[in-house]
Amino acid sequence: MACVRDLMSLESFQDITLVAGYKGLYRRVSWPNIAQTPDIREWLVGGDVILMTGIGLDCTYTFLNSILNQAAEGNAGCLVILLSPERIPRVFPETLAYAEKLNFPVFTAHWEIRIANIIRDISSFLLMERHQEEAVNSLLEELLFLDGNMPSDALQAFIKKHRLAGNHAVVLAEYAEICPEALSSLGGAVSRQQSADMLVQELKAKFPKTMYLNRYKSTFFLIPIEPEQAGSLVQLASRLCCDIDSWYPGLEVHFAIGRIYSEPLQFYRSLQEAKKASAMCRESRKVICFSELGIYQLLMDVPNQEQIIRFTEYRLRPLLEYEQKNNKNLLPTLEMYLQTNCNAVQTAQKLQIHRNSLAYRLTRIQELLGTSLEDAEDRNELYNCLKIYRYCQK
Fold first, then answer.
1. Domains (range + CATH), the chain
2. Do residues 146 and 268 make contact, with C-beta atoms less than 8 angstroms apart?
3. pLDDT tens, residue by residue, 87-105
4. Is there a smaller number of Cβ atoms within 10 Å at the N or the C end of the chain?
5. Is the pLDDT of residue 277 over 70?
């Protein structure tokens, strides 16, 4: 998963300067292309590293802004402008401001730089990255979803080659579009992609041997970590949640962290724990560790969970059936009400509904369940049922 930031470590990029679009450094890159016409839409494939010499072009700020707009719409990676007195003497302030608005990286280089060296370095780097990523993804998926199956010979060689024996934890990052209309013009899919790229870069910077696997709206990280580093991981995850909120309005990321295991064939347990922690606490917390689930951790080791599942579904069935027929959110309402310790004001605020609407929902919930939310025992039983129900969803 190569991104613009990776290019900055290439030898040919040492004399190339980033002048705008710092927040776009996590855009993916796919291949270098030279812009030779005013209309570049027709050949953009996504992830393009656009090199612009200005030869034969009227390089006003209006023209450059048009190129930026086309590049952003075509999900290109970045723009590298070669400066020369005769063609493009400088990048206009209006273009720099527009690049910042689009979060699109713009670099400048001296005219005398060798374009052939830039293209060669980028091409070689991307080919190597793709080959390594394809090989690692296949085997990492087998490892994380092993679930007791016998590992293949290729997987055993993979474990040995990458020295995976030792303490590792699985971190699950899930992306949610909480306000699609607030997302940038790039759209939700592109924002998720850039967010995932940012998380990969940041986690690998802190834990260099981190491996990752992307799936739709989720990224699985296998992180080498010692128990004393757990606090640092949580702090980093919390910071990244804030960064995503700031950089991609309308998009949220939630982290769930499984326990640490030293045996590679047990890493799948850490993944299952992360998924369970996410299912139980995703609505209330952005970063959750399975080790924080208290007594609910014991559910992982219950040999026959079907009986527990049947009981919770039986207890909550009136709400589930009512929701399905009437498209009402009674289950989340009950869950939030209990999580706020039955504080009606906080519940209404968090659900963004009027207190009268909340009162109506709570009355309907009690009628359907045949219970009283003023009774401590009933509240405790319902809270546990909700937790177990969420736990069993993944």
1. 4-121 (3.40.1390.20), 145-295 (3.30.70.270), 306-391 (1.10.10.2840)
2. yes
3. 888 899 999 999 999 999 9
4. C
5. yes
Query: Which amino acid is it at 328?
Result: K
Q: Residue range 312-338: average pLDDT?
A: 85
d(CA 168, CA 162): 13
- pLDDT tens for residues 372-387? 888 888 888 888 888 7
- Calpha distance 313→347 (Å, rounded): 24
**What was the pLDDT predicted at 221?**
95
Is the pTM higher than 0.85? The answer reads: no
Q: Single out the residue of 310, 312, 309, 365 nearest to residue 342, CA to CA.
A: 365
**Phi and psi torsions of 287, nearest 5°:** -130, 120
